[in-house]
Amino acid sequence: MEITLKKIYTNEKFSEETNCFKADIYLNGKKVGYAENDGRGGNTTYYGIEHHWSEDIKRMEEYCKTLPPIVYTKEKHGMDFSIDMNLEHYIDNIISDYLNEKAEKQLAKNFDKGICYGSTYSYSTIAFNVGKKKITITEMLKTTKGTQMLIDTCNDKIKEGKKILNTNLPFLKK
């Protein structure tokens, strides 16, 4: 059984405690319903196209109950616990993966604009200029002086305890 979401619309500005989104639900490539969350900490709601609780929705709910539970660890969440999988959690996981991929793509776009440091979801960028013209990381790496400036700036941030996120800096050990 393949459950997917399409036409995903998210609004991070309205996300307070949960992800604010609307999406179409597809079962095995066929549109069968809708899902949404207003982003205020409440549950994700979902419903079928034809009837609020269509047969397709019921089948997806039963399928999700057979999936392994969601496991949370003490290292990441402060305590070890698990939650039984259900369709609501399955949909939320799809949205979370979608938003994570979107954040990672945006971060990667910024790698050539400057040195990015922090975390994937909350980072700062140090950009470089010559006069009023912005200089890309690619341009800086072409010169010894530019490369040394990048190395020095990264070393300063690392000494401050910051994590450098760029993957396009050949002198950083990953």
Task: Tag the structure with descriptive keywords.
9 strands, 174 residues, 4-stranded antiparallel β-sheet, 3-stranded antiparallel β-sheet, elongated, alpha+beta, single chain
Helix content: 25-40%
Could you give the distance between the termini?
Answer: 38 Å
Secondary-structure-derived class:
alpha+beta
Mean pLDDT: 92
Radius of gyration: 22 Å
Please outline the major beta sheet: 4 strands, antiparallel
What would you say this structure looks like, in words?
The chain is an alpha+beta fold. It folds into two domains: 3-105, no CATH class; 111-159, no CATH class. The protein has five helices and nine strands, in the order ββββαβαβαβββαα. It has helices spanning 55-65, 74-77, 87-110, 137-140, 144-159, and strands at residues 3-10, 21-27, 30-37, 45-48, 70-72, 81-83, 114-119, 122-130, 133-135. The strands form three sheets. A four-stranded antiparallel sheet has the order 1-2-3-4, with helices on one face. β3 and β4 form a beta hairpin. The chain is elongated. The two termini are 38 Å apart.
Write the layout of secondary structure elements.
Elements: E1 3-10, E2 21-27, E3 30-37, E4 45-48, H1 55-65, E5 70-72, H2 74-77, E6 81-83, H3 87-110, E7 114-119, E8 122-130, E9 133-135, H4 137-140, H5 144-159
Antiparallel strand pairs: 1-2, 2-3, 3-4, 5-6, 7-8, 8-9
